[in-house]
Amino acid sequence: MYFIGITGGVGAGKSTVLTLLKENFNCKVLLADEVAAQLMTPGHQCFDRVVALGWPESILDAQGQIDRPKMARFMFEDNDLRQQVNSIVHPAVEAEVLNQVEYERRRHNIEYFFFEAALLIECGYGKLVDEMWYVFATVEIREKRLMESRGYSKERIANMIACQRSDESFRANCDFVIDNSGSPQETLEQLRKYIKSKGD
Q: Of 29, 33, 62, 80, which one has the fewest beta carbons inside 10 Å?
């Protein structure tokens, strides 16, 4: 079983690539955001520690769950809080992912385990995965997608892209580049060709 990390900038279409992988290959797909969200629910290991940090006001909603948009807003405004949350959540996510990878290795039921995270490189997953894949799309395509799907302004998109790792840096740290600027069918052909080359 190959353990493969998938990353890329905002608007590159990582979700599309993950859907294509799920639908066409014998694999499991796991998203860092979903693992983190689960670990921050009541009764799970990150909940109490995150809630106890020095937030400007409570980050719990009326149901006693963490209000993630509110938490994200506070983290965006306070670099110290962001670092504290990351120091709690990132190691817990890594441990959970590795547990699931080991479980799947023992079962021998799948050929690929794909793990998607925006900060895959920053969190050091290059040392843990068998390969890193980078989902690329041109800036123009990313702008168009984000304006249509999320209603973002060009200025907001430009700021988001500027805050992320450069295309050159993604390429330097990854083993395979998926050009997702075209149609899903074109992307699928790239995936099929590359995965076939791994088996040859």
A: 62
Q: What are phi and psi of 27, to 5 degrees?
A: -150, 170
Name the residue ranges covered by the structural domains of the chain. Answer: 1-26+113-200, 28-110
User: What's phi and psi for 77, nearest 5 deg?
Assistant: -85, -15
Distance of alpha carbon 148 from alpha carbon 114, whole angstroms:
27
Token pair recorded at residue 6: 């998938």
Q: What is the pLDDT of residue 7?
A: 96
Structure tokens at 124: 């050091």
In this prediction the pTM is 0.90
Q: Is 15 annotated as a binding residue?
A: yes
pLDDT at position 149 is 87
1-26+113-200: what CATH class? alpha beta
Would you say 16 is a known binding-site residue? yes
According to CATH, the topology of domain 28-110 is Rossmann fold (3.40.50)
Over the chain (200 residues), what is each successive 10-residue block's mean pLDDT? 95 94 96 95 95 95 94 88 94 95 96 93 92 95 90 87 90 96 96 87
Overall residue count recorded for the chain in this entry: 200
199 is in an annotated binding site: no
Residues 6+ apart with CB under 8 A from 32: 93, 97, 115, 116, 117, 118, 119, 120
Same fold, 1-26+113-200 and 28-110: yes
Alpha-carbon span 9 to 135, nearest angstrom: 8
**Is 182 flagged in the annotation as binding?**
no
